[in-house]
Write a structure and sequence with these properties.
seven-stranded mixed sheet, binds nicotinamide-adenine-dinucleotide, alpha/beta, eight-stranded mixed sheet
């Protein structure tokens, strides 16, 4: 009997992506796997059921999940969805286990082998599986467009019969995957871009995109290429110098994050008061608390003529391409586990070992285990 892989319809509020697009679903089918699609699963991303030529369409989630050996998802599952799965089945997707501890316990009870896409180590070999990066790139691109859309100014320099218009000034804070894509997109639209990150390694990347690197004299390289949290003294130094650049910005895009923590608040109310009337802040860190003190996640607020936009799940707004990229990440991650259409887990492979959240009733991810066991004791 071939392994059955299921693509359910996403149920999270506002989620428009689907875990596999038709072309990647077909590639799975070519490896000897039977692909099952919940009716309408791809609709929100504009992939109709008929486009999944290699998949068998199943009417509802309960029947689909009850039949599947492997379930692929984008947003974390609900407890109900986990309970509808077959005991011992495999699931891959985002889990955000520190928020959804009830789901982790349901996965444990059902002995599900759960692989969290956000836990895949960011090593060169796993770049093609890196869904954090693919979705962050989508977010960065869209953030620049949101900034251009909400701004009362043009991004490019325009020479017209009605006069010459100077290009907009865009400041990007946090030059990780999302920040770099925001810089590239704002540059393509013709804006003058300045960017800042605590990791000095980003200077070269920022400059290679034609933007100016803001040097505030604070560096905070942490482990594994990520940033570390700043000391109070460093934060004060950073804010004072940053305020001068922020005051000049027409659009400010903030993307600063520290893994496993709330986003750092880099733009206090006072800094917003110093901004130009009509300026726009796009806070891509809104979901993890926001980089701006005034950000309201999921909302657009105005203070002293400055618009502060805190979008959530931005990748879902570019649902078609975000789904295609995510599907490729899933394919590159799962197919090495499925030689000749049979499941074979090699726990010596660090990509498999580190991304596994639960297996055979145990929580294999240490931080999640301590969190859940700590809460019980
Ligand atoms: P992220 O989303 O965790 O953070 C975004 C950016 O915010 C980072 O560049 C971080 O340095 C910056 N930041 C944090 N605190 C800040 C502060 N107080 N002020 C200003 N900036 C601040 O980052 P990410 O986009 O996920 O990337 C993190 C790292 O992982 C980068 O080094 C990136 O190159 C690396 N990476 C490696 C791979 C790979 O090798 N497979 C893939 C993707 C990313």
């Amino acid at each position: 009997m071939p392994i059955k892989l299921a693509i359910p319809k996403e149920t999270a509020r506002g989620e428009r992506r689907v875990a596999l697009d038709p072309s990647v679903a077909a590639r799975f089918a070519q490896t000897g796997i039977e692909v099952l699609l919940q009716k309408g699963a791809g609709n929100e991303a504009h992939f109709p059921d008929e486009a999944y030529t290699e998949a068998r369409v199943v009417e509802d989630a309960k029947a689909l999940l009850g039949e599947a050996d492997i379930v692929v998802k984008v947003a974390p599952p609900t407890v109900e969805e986990v309970n509808q799965m077959k005991d011992g089945a495999l699931m891959a997707g985002f889990f955000h286990a520190h928020i959804h501890t009830d789901v982790v316990q349901a996965l444990q009870k059902k002995k599900i082998t759960a692989f969290a896409m956000e836990l895949i180590p960011r090593i060169s070999r796993a770049q093609s599986m890196d869904a954090l990066s693919s979705q962050a790139a989508v977010g960065g691109y869209k953030a620049a467009l949101m900034g251009a859309d909400l701004s009362c100014r043009f991004f490019p320099m325009l020479t017209t019969a009605a006069g010459t218009i100077r290009p907009a000034k865009v400041v990007v804070i946090g030059a990780g995957v999302a920040g770099l894509q925001a810089i590239a997109t704002a540059r393509r639209l013709g804006a003058l871009v300045e960017a800042y990150d605590v990791r000095s390694a980003t200077r070269e990347q920022v400059e290679s995109l034609g933007a100016r690197f803001i040097d505030l004299g604070v560096q905070a390289e942490g482990e594994g290429g990520y940033a570390r949290e700043l000391t109070d003294e460093e934060k004060a130094q950073q804010q004072e110098a940053l305020a001068q650049h922020v005051a000049q910005a027409d659009v400010l895009i903030t993307t600063a994050a520290v893994p496993g923590r709330q986003a750092p608040v880099l733009i206090p109310q006072k800094m917003v008061s110093g901004m130009k009337p009509g300026a726009v802040i796009i806070d891509l860190a809104a979901e993890s608390g926001g980089n701006c003190e005034l950000t309201k996640p999921g909302k657009t607020v105005t203070r002293g003529g400055v618009t502060i936009h805190g979008p959530e799940n931005v990748a879902s707004q570019v649902a078609l391409h975000a789904s295609e990229m995510y599907a490729k990440n899933l394919f590159n991650f799962l197919t090495p586990m499925l030689p000749e259409g049979r499941l074979k887990l090699n726990w010596d492979d660090e990509v498999i070992a580190q991304s596994c959240l639960t297996h055979e009733g145990a929580i294999r991810h240490e931080a999640t285990r301590s969190l859940i066991e700590g809460a019980k004791s």
